[in-house]
Amino acid sequence: MKSQKKQTSDRVGWRFDNSYARLPDYFYAQLPPVPVNAPQTVIVNHALAESLGLDLGVLSAEETALLFSGNVLPQGAQPIAQAYAGHQFGHFTMLGDGRAILLGEHLTPNGERFDIQLKGSGQTPFSRRGDGRAALAPMLREYIISEAMQGLGIPSTRSLAVVTTGEQVIRETQLPGAILTRIAASHIRVGTFEYAAGQGGVDAIKTLADYAIQRHYPDLNDAENPYLSLLNRVIDRQAALIAKWLLSGFIHGVMNTDNMSISGETIDYGPCAFMDAYNPNTVFSSIDQNGRYRYSNQPQMAQWNLARLAETLLSLIDSAQEKAITLAEEAIHAFPEKFQAEWITGMRKKLGLFTEETEDSELITDFLTWMYQHQADYTNTFRALSAETFPADNTFQNAELETWHARWQARLERQSETKERSMHLMQANNPAIIPRNHRVEEALSAASEQGDYTLMQQLLAALDNPYTDAPEHYDYRTPPAPSERVYQTFCGT
Ligand code: AMP
Ligand code: MG
Predict the structure, then answer these.
(1) What does the mean pLDDT of the chain come to?
(2) What is the number of the ligand 1 atom nearest to the C-alpha of 88?
(3) In percent, how much of the chain has pLDDT > 90?
(4) What is the distance in A from the centroid of ligand 1 to the CA of 4?
(5) C-alpha distances in angstroms, 205 versus 192, 223, 227, 448?
(6) Exposed/middle/buried for 435, CB within 10 Å: 0-12, 13-18, 19+?
(7) Is the confidence at residue 8, as pLDDT, over 70?
(8) FRET partner for 461 with CA separation of 20 to 30 A, picked from 212, 307, 336, 486?
């Protein structure tokens, strides 16, 4: 059924080809976004629009707001809410897009395919008891963090725009409502596979697996066992992704299977945050009571999620169940090693190491242990290594650190690369700027409470080049004062 809604002309450059909507109809519900009262654009990502081949400059302010609110659909859109399931904090649940609508897949001038999704777009058949809406601050939060991830070089969904709806949403208090336009390689989740497996029979899961291969890993069509290869590829991508999270101090906060993407992008920014002082037990999320998704537990949780994915693929991996289980287990058991390899490769770069020595692992661990014991700032301590001297901070005037520093210097001497090359490597791998919580919260308050987006724009500008030491952004490097520390973050759903 075609949407009844008005569509904008394609002056913008939309090129929709909606392959997901061609899957069997149990994979989604067809419906348009629920219109909002008085949409107003508060932020647009012009650089991203340009890279997608979209020319938003042709739209008036009013047309832009109508587009990003879903009140008017772009030409070629075919709005659907995707069905999925998921394990949330270990418990299986039926979910689905309860407050999001996939407008369709846009093809860029280079032929790349991206989902265009509105988040906060109203109720769907999957809303359960939710209102289908989102509050402004959490949508801006996703915008900031996802764009920060992009700047840091960590695979992520992107944020194209945020509009306010002119409506209030009721949470603990009344809050301004908003809609985020999210761009993703796809929204196929581990939970989508769990949903398909629950459809019974091998058809649904095969359809989805074939689709995922076609869309993300087309080279696997020729693999000897494409479905086992699919599993392995997702494992590889997740090992690389989670390593990047740990290397940058990122804590996702809600690593449920419905929030893990088959493409290997970070997805669904809720109560996520970057840690300041190094502590592997850091948890920010107010709903993560047992620290299931704490910083250091993220690799284990990724592996747990991947095991749920593996279970859905068993019948495709081999018709003999025993053999399928053996193969899937082998694949899952390889995760820790794959993760570790990605992590140590990244850590060597953070320490300016081009070569590999067995003792590197100890060198790294000792440095982290020192940071933990001295509550040193994770980002700044690594960044300080690439400066000639440590800052004249009390934390760094330390005999243990001097001993470690001498060991590290000796290690650098044992490789033929110059110190200068090491410095460059380190500067490209130790960000000067991360979206520190207190600065994110400060920007969000100004935006959502006073309608002042200056701080947010400044923060985004700094996060655009996190590996450069620009004097005008120096301020963003300061860790929170005790009074500014953010201990908890909230989903805001
Ligand atoms: P999330 O915590 O954002 O990953 O969401 C988990 C599930 O809850 C997804 O199925 C969402 O679509 C759904 N959900 C979250 N917030 C709402 C809401 N306000 N209304 C309806 N569904 C929601
Ligand atoms: Mg989610």
Answers:
(1) 95
(2) 6
(3) 91
(4) 26
(5) 9, 18, 10, 42
(6) buried
(7) no
(8) 486
